[in-house]
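Per-residue structure
===
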Amino acid sequence: MNCPDCKSSRIWKDGLRHVQGNFIQRFTCKECGLRFSEKNYKDHRITRGRQICVSDGEMKNLVKVETRKEIAQREGTKDGVETKGKLFEFTWWMKKQGYEKETIRTYLSCLRTLSKRGSNIFNPESVKEGISQQEWSPNRKRIAINSYSLFLKMERKSWEKPRCKVTRKIPFIPTEEELDDLIAGSGKKTATFLRLLKETAMRSGEAKRIQWIDIDSERRIITLNDPEKGSNARSWKVSSTLIGMLNNLPKKSNRTFGDGSVTSLKTTFFKARKRLARKLQNPRLLRISFHTFRHWKATMLYHQTQDPYYVKQFLGHKCISSTERYITIENTVFEPSSDEYSVKLSRDPNEIKGLLEVGFEYVCEKEGLIFLRKRK
């Protein structure tokens, strides 16, 4: 049997479906992610944590599986009910403290995962042991440690945090052509979202919050008054192409990209990205995420302006140290090929403006003359 979408033969069994007393085998394509059945093809979003069902005699493709029945039995115990109640209390406590929705969701997810995997959230040593056993990235472990520290703060308790060293990695910077390939190969809504990220360097959560009243189509200005991570509010002058793409979207909600979560957009984007990487024979596309567009824009801006404070303002950073990483990235991506410069002197403001627009850099001013230079 082959996938009805991409015709791949790389499919696996994905559980049985009970329909009117009959069992229908379900399958999932490893290439494009389509989920379908023997008798009735139908797309389904693949969710994490789904149980993989197989027929008798076949090996399961998960190392460790906890059935829904086992989870229900455990959560139905006194300890399970108490844990759920305390996590619910933790959610409201974070809301009252003014934490962002995404922070609350992330912290709650960490604590729930640890609880489901055997950690007792009322025992710091149990949680510490549970974190050490997870095959998480250092950054994910750091988030889990911070979430439990905040939980203990609510309980007016403390613990000795486990050590967790997080190395800040250099982000992947694609070419502009690769970003444009993704935009051109995506659907109308996803392509518009990606174009918005490319021109404004917004975080994906910020872009999802944009409302129609934030878009001034006549003057081509987009304003963000609801930023994430404590960033500054900001506005951008965008291209007429982006404004046209935005105006072509259906206006079914106050929000430009609908009231759903950003996760649905990510799922659609990941499928398109995988399809385009295979079609264009470019595996580098698989390394591009929503946040890659922000890294790319910041790097290009610093290369064009050589002004970290302008890049800081454009990105909404409150601290210049968050922007300085793009200086290192720019020096690596645009490694100078020569140490020779073309030098210009001028007193005329219009001439100086023209030289700056074509890439000349200000050096100094002496005796009324402005010195500018540009690599050959």
Notes: The chain has 14 helices and nine strands. The chain has four domains: 11-65, 69-154, 176-331, 341-375.
